[in-house]
Amino acid sequence: MGIASDLVLIIVLSLICAVFARKLGQPLILAYIVAGILLGPHTGGVTVSSVHEIELLAEIGVALLLFVLGIEFSFKELKPVKGIALIGTPIQILLTMAFGYGVGLHLGWDWNASLWLGAVMSLSSTMVVLKTLESQGLMGTLSSRVMIGMLIVQDMAIVPLLIVVPKIQTIGSELGALVWACAKAGIFLVAMVALGRKIIPAVLARIARCGSRELFLLSTCALGLGIGYATYLTGLSFAFGAFVAGMILSESDFAYQTLGNMLPLRDLFGLLFFASIGMLLDPSVIIDHPGEVLTLLAFLMIGKGAIFAILSRIFRYGNVIPLATALTMSQIGELSFLLASAGAASGALGHREYSLILTTAVLSMMLTPLAARITGPLYGLRKRLVGHGPLQTKNLPPSDAMRDHVVIVGGGTIGGMIAGILRRFGHPFVVIEDDYRAMEKLSKAGMPVIFGDAGNDVVLEAAHVAQARIMLVTPPAYAVVQMVTKMARKAAPELVVIGRAHTGEEMRALAQDGADIVVEPGLEASLEFIRQTLSRLGVSAADIMRFADEVHRDLYAPFHEEMSANGVGGALRISQRLFDLHWIELPAGSPLGDRAIRDTEIRTRTGASVVAILRGENVDVNPGPEKTLRAGDLLGVIGMAEQVDALRTLMAASEG
């Protein structure tokens, strides 16, 4: 059956390896690479027959990954990292090439082979880095944006590298070709972005009006892969063109529909990519040249990682970012295989050198998910051993005035909006922000801000969390929220911590880590959809409010149950959540109707307090004891759960 049977073998074995990897707590990337090693031509046993065809399909996987990434990201999100991306990445490529050249000479390679080694080492793997960030829940963090910005520029650099490196001895005569290739690519990209923003949404709108899901799926695939191929014809990489198409599409009305269609295809072809990487590994190279393989791998991971870390610091990225870039981007990239093949075809790389490079590349990709996992523990160890340097703070009030304030972790969209509202109400607050540029923006707006990592004791002390009333942990990455929640609870046991989660599992985990309240943006968005829908359907405001209140309690019930298991401290904190505002409609025929609040003795009989009355479209906040209750009133009631239940029972018993 040829390639069909090969695909079946790869998918089935990848599934088996993935199950074992999941049970062992290992990244799925490793499972797919191991499946490729087992099915590759160098390990014997069951072997795929169409390795080259699998590699071609894997290229589509890389393109689809970047197409989806382009949809998820926008040009605006990459602006904050344009400095390190546009200036830092070329510096990183040159430094890594020089370093790799020195490594090659150290191993006894001639100058030409050493030069190709440096070029191969200079690029990182977009596919591996993105999958690693995604599996660790770090997409959307500042460190992920830094890495993505640098990876994009690295992908663009493949063109000048393929032109310059083979002709390094005659670079003067090839300079015109290099300039023309770069100019041609630049003109194409500018035209694609300028025209694509208008033409692509219009074309998709026309296709969407046909009402065919299959036609829309086909058109989006053709869009991403077609633009990728057109970009390839101009000399840039196929995958980079797909990324540009995704970024253009991200600003249209069809972004989310396209994203939903592409995700299954991306994951399937991504599996083929990692399996194809595993097929390149020849165990005999490791057996025959263990010293050279280990030397190359060690120099690559340590030396290249150090270059990333130093550049991150030079471009004023602090906290965990230098360490994260060092451990996550130190592998050899998939586009480096093009360079290695070109070097072998030109005769600069012999069979031995070429095999060593391929083996080192595959091993570095396999080690990346494991290396990235130790970023957090290593950063924690560094903080304990080295401590924290002088903090940068802007607009902070005097220390004695930092009491009963709100600490906002993250000055992005959510944190910045909260800070603006708190300032309008005159309530004291301080923002902790680890992005220097975002910190400068907040400081120019007059916001009190601390530049640093909220998971650091020194930063928390500077924010006076022990004297604060509330901490809001707003970053989108769950790993960051979890770490900060633990640190805040340790530093200030009585502090009310409000965290952010994306799933029920994350909500329960944050409750165990000490969060008092967890906000799930998806749940809150669904509630707002419910409110708006019912309002347009003519449902009364009273019924909408009551229904939304009940749904809200039900959705967050598992979170409350989890928190109740936290002992005395958890019980004290959850009481604050249980002591909530409930909306109860006063039924017709109740003896509580047509009576003043003082005469109903609601508080004496149930312990609950009426703090608001919604009558029609009018809301009476904090009504006086003389206020008369009417049938149909929606009462805003505060009390413990059992007190509110007692009032409901009282009302129900009063009917009839």
TrEMBL record:
<keyword id="KW-1133">Transmembrane helix</keyword>
<feature type="transmembrane region" description="Helical">
    <location>
        <begin position="323"/>
        <end position="348"/>
    </location>
</feature>
<dbReference type="InterPro" id="IPR003148">
    <property type="entry name" value="RCK_N"/>
</dbReference>
<feature type="transmembrane region" description="Helical">
    <location>
        <begin position="354"/>
        <end position="374"/>
    </location>
</feature>
<dbReference type="GO" id="GO:0008324">
    <property type="term" value="F:monoatomic cation transmembrane transporter activity"/>
</dbReference>
<feature type="transmembrane region" description="Helical">
    <location>
        <begin position="115"/>
        <end position="133"/>
    </location>
</feature>
<keyword id="KW-0406">Ion transport</keyword>
<feature type="transmembrane region" description="Helical">
    <location>
        <begin position="293"/>
        <end position="311"/>
    </location>
</feature>
<keyword id="KW-0472">Membrane</keyword>
<dbReference type="InterPro" id="IPR038770">
    <property type="entry name" value="Na+/solute_symporter_sf"/>
</dbReference>
<feature type="transmembrane region" description="Helical">
    <location>
        <begin position="177"/>
        <end position="195"/>
    </location>
</feature>
<protein>
    <submittedName>
        <fullName>CPA2 family monovalent cation:H+ antiporter-2</fullName>
    </submittedName>
</protein>
<feature type="transmembrane region" description="Helical">
    <location>
        <begin position="268"/>
        <end position="287"/>
    </location>
</feature>
<feature type="domain" description="RCK C-terminal">
    <location>
        <begin position="569"/>
        <end position="653"/>
    </location>
</feature>
<dbReference type="GO" id="GO:0006813">
    <property type="term" value="P:potassium ion transport"/>
</dbReference>
<keyword id="KW-0630">Potassium</keyword>
<feature type="transmembrane region" description="Helical">
    <location>
        <begin position="83"/>
        <end position="103"/>
    </location>
</feature>
<keyword id="KW-0633">Potassium transport</keyword>
<dbReference type="InterPro" id="IPR006037">
    <property type="entry name" value="RCK_C"/>
</dbReference>
<feature type="transmembrane region" description="Helical">
    <location>
        <begin position="215"/>
        <end position="232"/>
    </location>
</feature>
<dbReference type="Pfam" id="PF00999">
    <property type="entry name" value="Na_H_Exchanger"/>
</dbReference>
<feature type="transmembrane region" description="Helical">
    <location>
        <begin position="29"/>
        <end position="48"/>
    </location>
</feature>
<dbReference type="GO" id="GO:1902600">
    <property type="term" value="P:proton transmembrane transport"/>
</dbReference>
<dbReference type="InterPro" id="IPR006153">
    <property type="entry name" value="Cation/H_exchanger_TM"/>
</dbReference>
<keyword id="KW-0813">Transport</keyword>
<keyword id="KW-0812">Transmembrane</keyword>
<dbReference type="InterPro" id="IPR036721">
    <property type="entry name" value="RCK_C_sf"/>
</dbReference>
<feature type="domain" description="RCK N-terminal">
    <location>
        <begin position="403"/>
        <end position="519"/>
    </location>
</feature>
<feature type="transmembrane region" description="Helical">
    <location>
        <begin position="54"/>
        <end position="71"/>
    </location>
</feature>
<dbReference type="GO" id="GO:0015297">
    <property type="term" value="F:antiporter activity"/>
</dbReference>
<comment type="similarity">
    <text>Belongs to the monovalent cation:proton antiporter 2 (CPA2) transporter (TC 2.A.37) family.</text>
</comment>
<feature type="transmembrane region" description="Helical">
    <location>
        <begin position="145"/>
        <end position="165"/>
    </location>
</feature>
<feature type="transmembrane region" description="Helical">
    <location>
        <begin position="6"/>
        <end position="22"/>
    </location>
</feature>
<dbReference type="Pfam" id="PF02254">
    <property type="entry name" value="TrkA_N"/>
</dbReference>
<dbReference type="InterPro" id="IPR036291">
    <property type="entry name" value="NAD(P)-bd_dom_sf"/>
</dbReference>
<dbReference type="Pfam" id="PF02080">
    <property type="entry name" value="TrkA_C"/>
</dbReference>
<dbReference type="GO" id="GO:0016020">
    <property type="term" value="C:membrane"/>
</dbReference>
